[in-house]
Design goal:
Layout: H1 2-26, E1 31-39, E2 44-52, H2 53-64, H3 79-90, E3 91-95, E4 98-99, E5 103-110, E6 113-120, E7 128-133, E8 144-151, E9 154-160, E10 166-170
Parallel strand pairs: 1-8
Antiparallel strand pairs: 1-2, 2-6, 3-4, 3-7, 5-6, 7-10, 8-9
Amino acid sequence: MLINYLKPTKFLLISLFCFSQTSFNSHKFYVSVTDVEYKTEEKAIQIISRVFVDDFEDVLGKRFSIPIVLLPDEESKNADQWISRYINQKLNIEIQGKEVQLNFIGKRYEDDRIYLYIEAENIPDFNSISVENLILTDLFEEQKNLVHFKKNKELKSMVLTKSKSKHTFTY
């Protein structure tokens, strides 16, 4: 009896898996993940943003009208300058209505992603902070930017889009 029950269930699971694979392969997802953490002792905001290399190359090339290659062995000259400029245009943080100066400090490549390291120093303690993330939204209308904000071991998250690009985290 149990074997007869498992066969339809197994068939259903295999069918759902096959369907989901075909639908995922035919549509690309546009998602970045940005981790923001306030380090109280250091009075600094540390940011790591992960985006797909090919998408980031495309957006930099179109934004600045120059060809940019982001591959470890073939990276375009001045790539860091273009990345820094783009980040300062698309990622913004405000504390008590004042914009925080973000500094691009480096990057690393892993598989098909690029990890962008950004920092803001000399940041006094705060109760609320606004984060605006428009990375890749000028290239992809359906871009979603997941932002995780951590302060004092408390983690809060928000999905930002082109139409809702800013969120205020309160602690």
